[in-house]
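User: Sequence for LRAT domain-containing protein below. Tokens please.
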Amino acid sequence: MGLLSHRVERSEMKPGDHIYTWRAGYTYSHHGIYVGGSKVAHFTRKKEAGTAGLDSAIAVSSLLLSQGGSDECPTFPDCGFQLPDSGVVLTCLDCFLRGGALHRFEYGVPAAAFLAKLRGGTCTTARADPSDAAVRRAMHLLQNGFGDYDVFENNCEDFALYCKTGLLPADDDGGIGMIGRSGQAASAVGVPLAALFSTPFKLLAAGPLGMAAVTAGVYCAGRYVTDIGVRKDVVKVEVEDLAAHLGWRRAKAQEAAAALKKQQQPEKKKAAAKSLLPLKRKREICV
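Assistant: Structure tokens for LRAT domain-containing protein:
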């Protein structure tokens, strides 16, 4: 287990593995569930205007260009399959990796090993469910979606974590709350917060090295308490219940949007009527 991540070979992969690859020079990582047959289910932005989600569209285009401009993926003819109202996409492993190295996310790691990791989004203390459960959840969400994509609140790592564990944060009533937040996002937010919260300890720190040690300690502690394996506000959610919950939320959002549109229509009519009043008066004067 490396301090940054856990690199594996393709021959070591098994269906149900949570895999990821680093992008933009280790700036961020993209996560997915390997479902077998060189295919990966992963979460990106929803399909719009007849195109695949942003990440999958770029990935497929990059591979096609490298293969001489063929109009279909040479590995998987249906690469980039994605339903219009779903952010979950199915691509081949090559398109998922986009030329990057393959890494496997680790589950059930000891607290000491978790804290020793230099980056978030590579492991969790939570225990994984059997591999077939991860594949079943991923394929179910491919058909039903995983809500709206959000970099900080609901991203590709959150999708893969749910597929592997079935765990989601609960609301105050014990029901399904907001999806997220991933270790990668917690890591990104944690660095500036660690620097901020460690400032009061500056007087206790012996020089720059002591300050760096205090900041690192605050950062690691922040990552640990937000880990899904440590949090106490998580519940086990069946994928069918999650799909129904997301469908209910989507219907409520559509109802709210329709009600708002209906409310705005009379206001627009009033505004249009007011704009016609000066024109009407001019005509009366001319007569």
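Residues 49-53, 60-67, 189-198 have pLDDT under 50 and may be disordered.
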